[in-house]
Amino acid sequence: MLKLFAGFQRDMKSGKRLQKNGKKIRSGSLINYSCLGKLLLLFSEKYDFPLRIKPLTKQDEKLIKDENRYWKEFYYLFTKFLYDDLGHYDNYVGTMIKLLRSFFNYLQLEKNMNIGNFHKKFHSPAQEVDIFALSSERLALMIRNTNKLSTMPEHWKPIRHIFLFGCATGLRFSDLMALRNENIERIGKVVYLRTISKKTQTFSRVRLPDYTIEIINRYSPHLKGSIFPTYSLWYFNDCIKNIMEHYGFTEPVLKYRTKRGIPQQILKQKSNPRFCDLASSHLMRRTAITHLLRMKVPEPIVRQVSGHSPGSKDFYRYIAFSQTYMDKELMKAFDKMPAS
After folding, report:
1. Is residue 30 classed exposed, middle or buried when 0-12, 13-18 and 19+ CB atoms within 10 A define those classes?
2. How many CB atoms lie within 10 A of CB 159?
3. pLDDT of 219-274, one tens digit each?
4. Is 166 exposed, middle or buried (0-12, 13-18, 19+ CB in 10 A)?
5. Residues facing 252 on adjacent strands
6. How far apart are CA 44 and CA 77, in angstroms?
7. Which structural domain, as residue segments, surrounds residue 241?
8. Chain segment 39-54, per-residue pLDDT in tens
9. What is the dihedral of CA 190, 288, 307, 179, to 10 degrees?
10. What is the tally of structural domains in the chain?
11. Of 39, 200, 334, 338, which one is least surrounded by beta carbons within 10 A?
């Protein structure tokens, strides 16, 4: 099985195996498959569980029953290994199981191996993680509060600017770091940002608000074709946490994940993590999308900005989140109205 999996990885890296849309497998997906390969090896060694695949060359009822029993035991022990030995949660375990099913589909459909459909019984657990975004008030505070800015360390200020630019455009961190002067289109006094997402290859053309143009003009003239200074994701995330703390976004936040569908609170410290402790580059994109939806910008326009496809499940989670937020705010207003 491990040799077949290694061949599966080679075919993806070389481009012999493509996505359903005909595009090459993304580098992030290749990393995930590499992690799965290492996990399978560790699991086999720890549990002394031989990983093998038996082709079903004939309708042998005993063989089918044996294989059904083998893969049922594999699934139970492998998920136990991920949950109990490594401490992973439902979303990570579910991702690994989905990748594993893709491998079996590859053997069936592309290698024409008659291996049965046992893998289709592999359940992939999932949890819808709460959307974590800045409120409109906090975003405005970060843009306009000059007092906080004057007391901020100088090396945080470029990170703050990049963060605010991301909150306006909804770009992923990797796309922000890849921006160059040719991504900027100027028509008179109107400035557009033209990008193609690295992850989804989706094209977008977005008009920029004035404060983002000021940010571009601050950095791009001093760089060789790039719009922003280059930072590592680790450094960027670390600074964002500090910046959020600097602005006073320090209220405790309940954070939990599920294991086998059972909620478990995550406590890395003695108390609940603070808002600032959970901040990262993802906060930019989530803030941009939720802010636009809260302002009742039509969904197709928000999707064009964010690069989500029309049927994206992730995008509809933002809609549900924003609707809950709007309902809450409306009820606050209704409660203040005089009774008839």
Report:
1. middle
2. 21
3. 887 778 889 999 999 999 999 999 999 999 999 887 778 898 888 766 555 457 89
4. buried
5. 274
6. 10
7. 136-325
8. 999 999 999 999 999 9
9. 60
10. 2
11. 338
